[in-house]
Amino acid sequence: MTEIGSILQQLLQFSPDALLVVDEHGLIQFSNDTARDMFGYASEELAGRPLELLVPERFRGRHHEHVASFLQSPANREMGARIVDLFARRSDGSEFPAGIRLAPIRSGERDYVSVAVRDMTERRAISAALVAARKEADRANQAKSRFLATASHDLRQPMQAIRLLNASLLKLTRDTHHVYELVRRQEQAIDNATRLLHALLDISRLESGAVDPKLASVSLASVYSDLQREFESTAAAKSLELKFAESDIVLMTDRTLFAQLLQNLIGNAVKYTEHGFVRVTQSLDAETLSIVVEDSGIGIPADKLDRIFDEYYQVDTVGAPRVGVGLGLAIVREVSRLLGLTVSVSSKFGEGTRVRVRIPRSNLLTNPAASAAPSLHAAENPGARRGRLLLLEDNQSVRVATELFLSLEGYNVRSAAGAADGDKLFADLRQGDVLISDYRLDGKLTGLEVLRNLRADKPWDVPAVLLSGDLEAMLRAVKTPIENCRFLSKPVDTQALLEAIGELSKLPGDA
């Protein structure tokens, strides 16, 4: 025997798989040493014996069917490819899960079948462990979704009380410089904690599948206007030019999620730009609408671009402010996935960043003017006067903190713990009074339902500010636009709350 022939013979005998050769009658003509170790039969014991000797009795009927099928169209194939459980039988009667591969062989005028058998015990065990781990992870994910759905509001409540109490302290200590400065710094820490809480809850809800996009017609001009109001004071404080494109385009999308995506992009641009501009432009081609958020900020090094959408990742740039925990762009990634949008980033370190959001043209409505939904925000009327504020809040600490803050701002505040006490609270309701209500109240009614009941009883639209720890869920409950109503997220921005009250505290005809 040649050296190559000897090597081939050894490969055949000591292959990792048990190898058998079976004739057209199903009788074993050859078995290697691995087959001996695997099945417990010496080669001479298997020679001339039927292959079904190695098949568990309960599978022998199916075995004959598979053999007949193979002989009709012989070809290399995985015997277990369509069989969930495939087992082989040892000489002692024990069984093991097996992977079996068949291949036709022709020698002279005779046909044979090569059978390769692999013991799958270890692989099946690993697979079963992986399946169990996946199921456990799914259960944990579902538990997280349930937790977020029920606890999102409650997690924000303590921050709401702290924020309002701190705003009251600022009011009281304005004339005491050292104390005022300490409270102002405390306010900054509360703001940072609030942003972190929002980001953590948002990314968890998005990744757990707890968010289901609700498509509706969305005016880009309305979204731009809201974002302009949100960021103009921060941009002005840094002397940045903040500019939005004029637009008459209306999209079919989820307004809350879409606005959240742009909010994170613009927030990042303003945060990391100290001089120059932040601009939001748009362009339309045959296939897509592109919205570009561009800034003249610090930029992103080329070797960091592929990681910026990772959770908790922040570009560590010398001299750059380190703000937040790196969840903003991870939220952008998840929202764009949900809405079917594409987001790409280009940047030059030290010269600024461009983020392009591509929206399929199929998402654009064909008749923007007819499709544009009225804004949820009421138009401003000149001439404000201060009416009473009627506060519904079932959390005592938040109710006390809100009442204290608004009283220090000069408002006449009356409060109740929930809808059950509403009759007494609303007994002498008059025009100019503003309802401030938590959306989720203890009891059967929501703040929105309380408002609708009030409006059904009065000949005017009672103005209201509705607060929620889950703003997205509250906005989804609003089926049609509501005039003279503001929707704010908890923990509420105190300035935003005062502005909303100021706009709503008006009587028709006030001058």
Structure description:
- Strand 16 (434-438), helix 13 (447-457) and strand 17 form a beta-alpha-beta unit.
- Helix content is 42%, strand content 21%.
- It is an alpha/beta fold and 511 residues long.
- The model is unreliable at 367-385 (pLDDT under 50).
- The strands form 4 sheets. Strands 1, 2, 3, 4, 5 and 6 form a 6-stranded antiparallel sheet that branches.
- It is built from 15 helices and 18 strands.
- The chain has 3 domains: 3-119, 2-Layer Sandwich (Beta-Lactamase); 214-372, Heat Shock Protein 90, CATH 3.30.565.10; 388-504, Rossmann fold.
Short description:
With about 500 residues, the chain is of the alpha/beta class.
What is the count of DSSP helices, taking H or I runs of 4+ residues?
15
The proportion of strand residues reads: 15-25%
Compute the separation of the termini in Å. 112 Å
Based on DSSP secondary structure assignment, what is the total number of beta strands?
18
CATH architecture of the largest domain: 2-Layer Sandwich
- Residue stretches low in confidence (pLDDT < 50, at least 5 long) are 367-385
